Amino acid sequence: MVVAFSVVAIGTSLPELVVTLRASLAGYPGLVLGNVVGSNIANVLLVTGAAGVVYPLASGGGTAQRDAAIMMAMSLGFALMCFMGDLTRWSGVLLLSALGVVMGVTLRSTLRSYRESVTTPLEWVLGIPSHRRMIALFLVAGGVGLPVGASMMVNAAVEIAGRLGVSETVIGLSIVAAGTSLPELATSVVAAMQRRTEVTLGTIVGSNTFNLLGIMGVGAAVSPASITISRRLLTLDLPVMLSAGLVLTLFILARRPLGRRAGVLLLAGYIGYLAVLFMSV
């Protein structure tokens, strides 16, 4: 759970980070906000739902409950920040500061867990190659592929928004969010197939926390202009994000498995949200 909340979650959130940087520097703040909020919605409804259909998800004790509580607290804090007005560079600095505190708590837990016992190799979840040449190849491929893919996605998203006559935020909430959530989907489904359910839950909870604090923090900090908070975001997108996060948190706190029926309901909820999103515009 600790590894999934930190290392795996940050790794699967790198596409959101690079897309956010590209969109911020290109002057598309709506795409930044839509990507972060939409990714968090997709992580819970789409990714958790799909993984729950594959195998019932159950969490363990303290660490999972603590991380879920942190995710929910950060989600509420971010929503409150949005209700107070547009996101400025100082908002980004505040979010990044909160990320530093959260990562400090996680690092302490990681060190404690490492001292207690390290018996399970991490290659099964991280996909780490063993040879240095292969490691170098992975790093080069990732270093080239991420910025190129991010540039293509941002340009395509802006063009799609223009052709459909909708805002970049709507495209960020839907197409871009679903695309950048594919690493979480792949990792979580594979972990569910291997019945490593704590990895699935840790990846989703950690990714959502990192999205709000790290990615949104970077996006707001480097954006040339303040990020405008639309009325629809306050009345539809944020309530859906908070509701989905609350459902996941309650399952984890109650230590109840999230089974196939709940997974199907989450997937149906994601389809319904997308339908309402596009009907509203």
Based on Cα principal axes, name the global outline.
globular
Measured on Cα atoms, how large is the radius of gyration?
A: 18 Å
Name the average pLDDT.
Answer: 83
Quaternary structure: single chain
Q: Helical amount among residues, as a percent range?
A: over 70%
Helix count equals 12
Query: Beta-sheet strand percentage?
Result: under 5%
What is the SS-derived class? Answer: mainly alpha
Order of helices and strands: HHHHHHHHHHHH
What separation lies between the terminal Cα atoms? 39 Å
Work out the number of β strands.
0
Q: Unreliable runs, pLDDT <50, ≥5 residues?
A: none
User: Largest sheet, described in full?
Assistant: none
List keywords for this structure.
single chain; 281 residues; mainly alpha; 12 helices; 83% helix; 0% strand; globular
Q: How are the secondary structure elements laid out?
A:
Elements: H1 2-12, H2 14-26, H3 29-54, H4 62-84, H5 89-116, H6 123-126, H7 132-164, H8 168-180, H9 182-193, H10 197-222, H11 231-254, H12 260-279
Describe the structure.
This protein has 281 residues and is mainly alpha-helical. The protein contains 12 helices and no strands. It has helices at 2-12, 14-26, 29-54, 62-84, 89-116, 123-126, 132-164, 168-180, 182-193, 197-222, 231-254, 260-279. Helix 2 packs antiparallel against helix 3 and helix 7 (132-164) runs antiparallel to helix 8 (168-180). The longest helix has 33 residues, at 132-164. The radius of gyration is 18 Å and the shape is globular. The model has no long low-confidence stretch (mean pLDDT 83).
